[in-house]
Write a structure and sequence with these properties.
Bound molecules: phosphoric acid mono(formamide)ester, norvaline
CATH superfamily of the largest domain: Aspartate/ornithine carbamoyltransferase
Number of strands: 9
Number of helices: 11
Number of domains: 2
Structural class: alpha/beta
CATH topology of the largest domain: Rossmann fold
CATH architecture of the largest domain: 3-Layer(aba) Sandwich
Largest sheet: 5 strands, parallel
CATH class of the largest domain: Alpha Beta
Helix content: 40-55%
Oligomer: single chain
Strand order of the largest sheet: 7-6-5-8-9
Strand content: 5-15%
């Protein structure tokens, strides 16, 4: 694997290797990326991705250079291709959060150094690796688990996690309206009625109803997705030891209620912490 743009870039064996590396590198300061510079480019806001990657790079002894898209010449119309041709001569890897997944594909086609997807309109593989790692951590293994996604099924985070879960044979159910179905090819079941979908769930997963870049559709989305809100009534219908995941940031009161996100089944902050641990392994695997 040279780049990480999609969960499809990783095999089951690659993911298992990432998890072993995660355990090995967790909470350790190393010199594995000594002398390496990594550009972090952001076309959209970020808290977790930006800080966890910066800390991950520092913990591996490397140097992170954070760049805001609009402060680069990209914001004034320099092409993604020309920017990549220049950056690859300076840095040892490019981590980029973009609106259009196509921009990452353009970067990866040109770049001799690894390009890592830090979220696009289509996928969020770094999030999905932390999610699956969290599921494994909490459930001890990934066998015989049922995961239910509620809300906007055509969402970047869901897309990557569905692809990851498929590789490990999880029973995947997506509960969403007809016009919000996932856009990735994978084996999953659609159960439109959320009360029906969550029965016997081991994992409940939701994400925002309005992703970054979809703000003009806000009113419509909130109305159409309202009935998929992850609330305590739905949690009660799942298994007693169900875990609740959300990539964050959450819009409390929209896709998830505060009592659920703060409740005893929620593992969202461990999940956020795991971004740091898994990203160290991703960097190690691509750069070492
Ligand atoms: N989950 C996630 O990617 O968060 P940020 O948008 O804060 O980076
Ligand atoms: N689906 C969300 C994820 C944020 C981490 C978005 O794209 O805004």
């Amino acid at each position: 694997m040279k780049h990480l743009l999609s969960m499809n870039d990783l095999s089951k064996v690659d993911i298992e290797k990432i998890f072993r590396l995660t355990d090995k590198l967790k909470n350790k300061q190393t010199n594995d990326l000594k002398g390496k510079n990594i550009a972090l480019i952001f076309q959209k806001p970020s808290t977790r991705t930006r800080v966890s990657f910066t800390v991950a790079i520092n913990q591996l002894g490397g140097n992170a250079i954070t760049l805001n898209w609009n402060e680069l010449q990209l914001g004034r119309g320099e092409t993604v291709e020309d920017t990549t041709r220049v950056l690859e001569r300076y840095v040892d890897a490019i981590v980029a959060r973009v609106f259009s997944h196509e921009d990452l594909v353009k970067m990866a086609k040109i770049s001799k150094v690894p390009v890592i997807n830090a979220l696009s309109d289509l996928e969020h593989p770094c999030q999905a690796l932390a999610d699956l790692y969290t599921i494994k951590q909490k459930k001890k293994n990934l066998r015989r688990l049922k995961i239910v996604f509620l809300g906007d099924g055509a969402n970047n985070t869901f897309h990557s996690l569905i692809l990851a879960c498929e590789k490990f044979g999880l029973d995947i159910v997506v509960s969403c309206p007809n016009n919000y179905r996932p856009k990735v090819r994978a084996k999953y079941k659609i159960i439109e009625d959320p009360k029906e979908a969550v029965k016997d769930a081991d994992i409940l997963y939701t994400d925002v109803f309005v992703s970054m870049g979809q703000e003009t559709e806000q009113e419509k989305r909130l109305k159409e997705l309202q009935k998929y809100q992850l609330n305590s009534k739905l949690v009660e219908l799942a298994k007693k030891d169900v875990i609740v995941l959300h990539p964050l940031p959450a819009h409390r009161g929209q896709e998830i209620t505060s009592d659920v996100i703060d409740g005893e089944n929620s593992v969202v902050f461990d999940q956020a912490e795991n971004r740091l641990h898994t990203e160290k392994a991703i960097l190690y695997l691509l750069m070492k």
